[in-house]
Amino acid sequence: MPPGSAPSFPIDSAPHSRARIVDDLPTETLADVGSLRPLGQIKESFIIASGYDGLWIIDQHVAHERILFEKVLHNRQANAPESQRLLMPIIVTLTPEQQVAFDRINDELFAAGFEIEPFGHRTVAVKASPAGLSPSEIETLLHEILETPDRELRELSIDDLQKQVAATIACHAAIKINTPLDPAKMRWLLDELAKTECPMACPHGRPIALKYGLKDILKAFHRI
Amino acid sequence: MPPGSAPSFPIDSAPHSRARIVDDLPTETLADVGSLRPLGQIKESFIIASGYDGLWIIDQHVAHERILFEKVLHNRQANAPESQRLLMPIIVTLTPEQQVAFDRINDELFAAGFEIEPFGHRTVAVKASPAGLSPSEIETLLHEILETPDRELRELSIDDLQKQVAATIACHAAIKINTPLDPAKMRWLLDELAKTECPMACPHGRPIALKYGLKDILKAFHRI
Predict the structure, then answer these.
(1) Region of poorest pLDDT, from A7-21, A133-147, B80-94, B141-155
(2) Closest Cβ opposite residue A40 in set B3, B10, B39
(3) Regarding beta strands B209-213 and B123-130, do their DSSP bridges make them parallel or antiparallel, or are they unpaired?
(4) How far is B120 from chain A, CA to nearest CA, in Å?
(5) How far is A188 from chain B (nearest CA, A)?
(6) A210 — contact with chain B (CB < 8 Å)?
(7) A66 and A196 in contact (C-beta within 8 Å)?
(8) How far apart are CA A194 and CA A2, in angstroms?
(9) Cβ separation B2–A41 shorter than 8 A
(10) Residue environment code for A126-158, b if the CB has 16+ CB neighbours within 10 A, otherwise e
(11) pLDDT grade for A20, boundaries at 50, 70 and 90
């Protein structure tokens, strides 16, 4: 395939808000991530960084997702969500099942930074949303959260519900792939990632970073 | 290990001028190397580059070795070696075996850009050397070439001898590892490498470039 005709990356479109939230991954790599020096991006999707122990590749979307997940969850637990008022309310139509889910978790959505009011038959008006969310994401996000079947919602602990809402917000507010980042933004992302409790995997367990260790590089080049 | 205390790379010290010269490797990756965009170095030894088909790691020393090898050999075959006169002759003492080898291949050394004259008992004076060689490398290089046992030299074809001399010169004149390169120098190195007949392996068959393909990266991040 000639240069220039490389395919764009598949956009991270598969909703996964109902997957198990992973928060028990090892944290021993925390210091490693903090020592990284960003070199650039490939395909405007993955940050390439140099570490003292090798070459790192960071998925910019899931890295930002992890940062936002911990921030949203922390603010929620401190009852201090960061919210933004919308210029115009966004009107969202719900299915009967989504309406049931909405009635059950609207208090939790409010605690996470949403302000949503009934607006006639199976319709709601979103007047405020968690900070950082683009208005164009709000309808999709709301449908995604409200897709959880009622049976499942009733079995969910408050803790799990909070995490699920935070993970869905984080996924929709995070930097997308196929997005150019300048060096300062890459630096910021790696610094913020290093401050998270779990910098190696997104809330759904997808890897954030790959490492090509120095020893393996040396071996591949027949240098050791 | 904390950042900053990472070990320096082992310097490329093992002489390998007598290994078989490899010049029959596949060349279908030529276009790929030409499309690379350098992002930076790791450990001031390996150039990290972005290609349309993935992430590349290039060993700067062996890449330059390949470039110089083809250039020196081409000039030799055109009887137009690039030579540099030394400010002061370098006096080199030879073992009896090296003296035998010197007498046998001095004409070939001259054709490659050396100007070496007898200087008393088992001693020679180097007055000129191939361009690009640092004077501090000349004694080691000469000993390395002249280490070839006479029995082996007698069996060597002219063609193989020319390649062996060119490979040894290239190895000693090439950019070392643990050397910082600015973006222009990295760009130059990749451009020159793309012009070589065999950009994927050094004259002794060591790999020049490793590629981490886009598909493999996407798989590792659970994106396909």
Answers:
(1) A7-21
(2) B39
(3) unpaired
(4) 40
(5) 18
(6) yes
(7) yes
(8) 38
(9) no
(10) bbbbbbbbeeebbeebbebbbebeeeeeeebee
(11) very low
Q: Other C-beta atoms within 10 Å of B55: how many?
A: 25
Q: What pLDDT, on the 0 to 100 scale, is given for residue B140? A: 94
Q: Is the dihedral of CA A47, A201, A78, A111 positive or negative?
A: positive
Number of other CB atoms surrounding residue B161 within 10 Å? 17
Going from the C-alpha of B146 to that of each of A163, B116, B152, B204, the distances in angstroms are 71, 13, 11, 18
Q: Do B4 and A206 touch (CB under 8 A)?
A: no
pLDDT tens profile A122-176: 999 999 999 989 989 999 999 999 998 888 888 889 999 999 999 999 999 999 9
Nearest residue, CB atoms, A207 vs list B35, B53, B222 = B222
The C-alpha atoms of residue B68 and residue B193 are separated, in whole angstroms, by 10
**Strand order from edge to edge, sheet including A123-130:** A83-93, A123-130, A115-118
Partners of residue B48 in chain A, C-beta under 8 Å: 39-40, 48, 50, 55
Q: Rounded to the nearest 5°, which phi and psi values hold at A163?
A: -65, -40
How far, CA to CA in Å, does A207 sit from each of A65, A104, A165? 11, 32, 20
How far is Cα of residue A4 from the mean position of the Cα atoms in its chain? 30
Instruction: Select from B169, B116, B105 the least CA-distant residue to B140.
Output: B169
Q: Which amino acid is at B50?
A: S
Pairwise CB contact (< 8 Å): A39 & B40: yes
**A25-33 own/partner pairs: CB under 8 Å, 24+ apart:** A25/A198, A25/A200, A25/A201, A25/A205, A26/A200, A27/A197, A27/A198, A27/A199, A27/A200, A29/A199, A29/A200, A29/A209, A30/A194, A30/A199, A31/A194, A31/B2, A32/A211, A33/A190, A33/A193, A33/A194, A33/A199, A33/A200, A33/A209
Instruction: Kindly identify which residue of chain B lies nearest to residue A216, measuring between CA atoms.
Output: B210
Among candidates A39, A42, A52 on the partner chain, residue whose Cβ is nearest the Cβ of B3 = A52
Report pLDDT for B17: 36
- Look at residue B164 in the predicted model and tell me its pLDDT: 93
Predicted pLDDT of residue A31 = 58
pTM score: 0.82
